[in-house]
Amino acid sequence: MFDDLKGKTVVVTGSSKGLGAAMARRFGAEGMNVVTNYRSDEEGARETVRAIEEAGGAAAAIRSDVSKAECVEALYDAAMFSFGGIDIWVNNAGIEEGAPSDQKSIEAWQRVLDVNLTGVFAGCRCAINHFLEHDMLGTIINLSSVHEVIPWPHFADYATSKAGVGMLTKTLALEYADRGIRVNAIAPGTMNTSINAQKLADPEQRAATERLIPMGYVGAPEDVAAAAAWLASDQARYVTGTTLFVDGGMTLYPGFQFGEG
Ligand code: BGC
């Protein structure tokens, strides 16, 4: 637990399920006001809010499509209306759609880039404007992926967007460091969430995935939530512009694990 988080307000985009929901719940357990956000899964967002309230936190569920800058502004306005300010903004919402690159439509490519990269920029811009206007030491966490650095066939759009998130994070961290605004990223590997449910339900695909994880098992959403809580807290006050990999070692060239090479 991180005492300084208590009473602060956090926005978590895409928090009706998966990593976003786990982070929202963790922030709730830290005693924060949590603005959860969803695009279509209203029931999931309400479930997240219920869980936070049951744990004694305060939460609101706001519908907004982060791929549209004006909707991100509306999400910010709703957060202000609900809790009167923001201290932490987590750009988590993301999508992935696999297809061979020679068959991928420009529309599909654009959809992924709009949510995963432009949406993240729009969220950062909103939060930074708020922190500057109120002369605050606010902090931003962007959800990247191991595919910030690992190329991923059939997911060229996704991997490109996550590489972009890494550079966006570093650039904004540098740009606003002297104002005390910290910008970091978390790069999860394969986690036990609905985005991976189909492949993890298939024993062969699960085994193939586990072979890519030196620690040998798929991560839990709570592992990412713990990293987010720490990065958001004052314990990480000197940390900015970094990507924290939470991946069981997936980025450590697993093919070399047993000394081959
Ligand atoms: C994706 C997962 C994938 C993992 C490792 C993540 O960014 O969301 O679907 O299993 O990367 O490839």
TrEMBL record:
Uppermost EC category: oxidoreductase
Record InterPro entries: KR_dom, NAD(P)-bd_dom_sf, Sc_DH/Rdtase_CS, SDR_fam
GO biological process: steroid metabolic process
Family membership noted in the UniProt record: Belongs to the short-chain dehydrogenases/reductases (SDR) family.
EC number: 1.1.1.391
Matches recorded under NCBIfam families: PRK07231.1
Source taxonomy: Bacteria, Bacillati, Actinomycetota, Coriobacteriia, Eggerthellales
Residues in Ketoreductase domain copies: 8-189
The protein's name in its UniProt record: 3beta-hydroxycholanate 3-dehydrogenase (NAD(+))
Gene3D superfamilies referenced in this protein's UniProt entry, alphabetically: NAD(P)-binding Rossmann-like Domain
Domain of life: Bacteria
Pfam name, any one: adh_short_C2
